[in-house]
Each structure stands twice: as C-alpha cells, then as structure tokens.
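Annex B. Sample input.
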Amino acid sequence: MTRLRFLPLLLCWQLLSLYSKAQMNGSWGDQGNGTYVNPVLPADYSDLDAIRVGDDYYAISSTMQFSPGMVVIHSKDLINWEIIGHVADDLTRISPQLNWDRMNCYGKGIWAGSIRYYKNKFWVYFGTPDDGFFMSTATNPAGPWEPVHQLWNVNGWDDCCSFCDDDGQLYFVATNFAMDPKNKKKYNIHLFKMAPDGKSLIMESDSIIHQSNGSEANKLYKINGIYYHYFSEVKPEGRVIMMERSKNIYGPWEIRQLNHVDQQLDREPNQGGLLQLPTGEWYFFTHHGSGAWEGRPASLLPVHWIDGWPVIGEPGTDTIGRMVWTGVKPISNKSKVSIQSSDEFSTGKLNVQWEWNYQPRADKWSLAARNGFLRLYAFTPIPSNKQGDIILRAGNTLTQRSMRTHANVATVKIDISHMTDGQFGGLTHFSTTSHSLFGIRQENGIRNLVYSINGKDTSGVVIHGKAIWLRSTWDVSGVSHYAFSTDGRSYQPFGGAHQLTWGSYRGDRIGIFNFNTKEDKGYIDVDWFRYDYGK
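Annex B, continued. Sample output.
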C-alpha cells in the first residue's frame, strides 16, 4: 500500500498548472535523473490497457483503420516504452470496408480492447462499432498472434475486457452504447460468461451490471478476493474514472469516483490499466481522453489505496485523485528504450512503428524488388466527390505517429527516376481534418516540386535529378514546415506553415504517399526514412 500524502487543494492546482505548462514546453518521459514527466508517450497511444507479466510490462493501444492493427508496446520500467508488434495483421478479417479498395472506416475500425495473461497465453479482445468483438492469443506478445477471431457479430458496442476467475471461468464485460430497446437507456454495461476456449459468449449468461451517463472503458480485476469493475463516465466536470467493487462478480456493487478531471488542464486521463509492481506499489497507465493534434498521449499516475479503493493520482482532501505531472521513476532501469521512428528499409521487413492507412494492396509495395529500398508502386485512388480528399482515398499510404516534443525532424530520401505522368509521391502529414502533401508530381514528362494543403496546390521548381530529399520539422505547437534538397546537404524551405490536427479520433501522422491519378503505373524507391524527435 502506498503511503498517502495530502496536499492543500490550492497547492495541488498550482502544481497541476506548473506541470501542464511543462508539458506544453515539450518536457516528457524519462528525465535522466531518476524522475519522469508526463506524458511518458507524447503521441497517439489511445484506449490503453496494460499488464505486468514477471518483470515486463505490456500495453495495447487502439489503431482504428490503420494496419497492422492494435499496437503492442513493452517496457521494463513503465516510463520508457518500445513497440514490439501488432495483434491484427489482416484487417479484412474484421471487415472488407477496412481494405484499400473500400476505405470506409475513418473513426471506426479497431477501438479499445484489453490485454490479459492467463492459461499460459496472452489474450487480446477488442471491439469495432460496426462489426462487433474480436479476439486473438499469442504465447509471445511480440507475435505471432493467431488470426483474429470474431467473438460476436454485433454493432453499437465497445470497450470490452476479458477476465479469468480463480476457478478458470472466463468472463467478458462490454458496453452497449446504443439505445437498449428493453430499458430505453444507452451505455449499459453487460457481463457474460465465455466458453472455455474464450472464442464465444454464453449468451444466456448476459447480465447488466451498470449503467450511467457515458459508462464505458471497462476493465475487470480481482484483488485480495474482491472483484473490481473499472469504468469511466461523464460528469459535469468531464469524463472521470469510476470503480465498483463486490465480493460477488454479479454484485451488489459499491461505487466510487476515483479522480477529478479538468479538460483544459489535464485533458481527462480516463482509460487504461491498473498495475501492481513486485514491490507492492500500484500505478495506472492511461491515455488523456481529450484529443489534440498529436492525439491522445499516455501518462503514468500513482495509485493510492484508501479504504480499499485504488485512488488514481494525488488524492485531495476529498480523497479523490487529481492529475500528477511528475514523479520518481517507479523502477530504476539504466537500459533506456524508445519508440522506434526511423527505417533504412534494409532488413527485409518494415520496422514495427509503421502502419498503413487501411489494409494495403499487397502487390503494390515491396522490400525485395530492390535491395535496401522500399518500392511503392503507384495506383489510382478510389474516386471521391470531396475536393482535396484524394489522400484519404489513396491506398498504400505508410504512416507512423507524430510526436509532440520540442524538436521533430523527419526526412525521407526517394529515388524518383521511375515516376510516370499522373504520379504524385512524397512526404505527408496525415489527418482526416487537415492534411498536407509535399513531394514530386510528374506531368508531360516534367517533374515538379509540389506542396498541397487540403487539395490546394503550390508548384515549385522542376526537379531534374534522380533523387529528392524531403523534410518536415515541427515542435510542441504542431506547426509543420517543409523543406527539400537535391543533394542531401543543403535544404530549402518550401510551402507555408501547416497546423497539424486531430481528426476521426486520431492524431496527426507523418508518412509516405504515392499514387497516380491517371493509371496504375510508375513507382518510387524509398531509400530511407529518418525521424528524430529528441529521444
């Protein structure tokens, strides 16, 4: 049990304001002196769940329409994280709308899920708003994961979690956010038993265990013989963390609020996983629910047990927690890892940070066609009636999360010697609400530098060489500036400033695009992609 320290309310809010400003200045993560600053991951790691297995910590994060889906990250100290894999490598097993030839699931796709370890395997369950619930298992969280299996074909549900009781009985909890025709209410939380293999629900076991305004983000725990049902709900102050507990998994339940939130100051930390360290201390790894241009970043909060309740953050005089922006690292670990960002395309497989926008067209990209290069073959986008949305309908756009740090520099070197008329390829900042494209477009055999912001193009110099270097820089404000080079040494700015944005529940992504508006023809060879965010 963590020792409780009460701070005067005014001091709590002063500290909150101070560390909020520190976050805005780009401070984050491991400070190198035994302390850390939240967020520990200043990028889009939404809908988190986390577990400890031995001395290792694993977490999953939702990925919507990006493929591979449901990213898995790993840490030894809860502060420094690295990507180790993804659960779903083929999104078409979830829905054909997630394929490159449909692309109809912005804001949908893979939503929140849970990761658990029992019966000598890792188990991940997740939901989609239109296609129901899915699951997969693995003996190694880095993969391979079993092909995703549809647990239940249903719509209007989300935020699920599996649970294995002491007797081996499997349970499944989830929210029906749509209107229930029986009780005429939304956000009913249901509890089911599952079959022994965890691949189907026992429907006759269905029981509603809670309903409140916006109640979702479900997790189930059993701690010292007591069942704890974690969820969040919407109160006047915002979306807060709630908990109910009982000696029986079906109730009756006691209920308590675990934290206070302020959307402007702390961005509503409210979805994540409770973690007990080998020392007995507890922490909560969570996303911030209010999205900004970088998405929903991840923070680590202390947990104080008060009268048998896991209060999240720094407890006030009301024994309800508040956001904590800094602290002593919970585990001393000199081996510092970080989220991967660069790729030389020389290993025969894409590095784990990459995620395609939708399931890619497999025959239109290759790491084998030219050794040490990523080849992207151009093909025509899906027709769209919305001007400026061509990148949202162009397949095989390769992306990764943009970091919200004080200095970001992303540079790509591309061989453009095999481009054809109608082709446009280069570097992009990708969001559904505002996107920019910066690269080379070929028309009538001439290759021009082009900067495009939401479909409005600015053409630049003619590029005569075989290679082009493209660069984007940005800081904590999320304002991007592009530059180019024809020799890899001297860079010239081009185009205007572009404010990175949040859209369809996703933060901005930096990526590589390539399409042809006339025909399926031409290709680019990407030599390398190097992204430094001040690790």
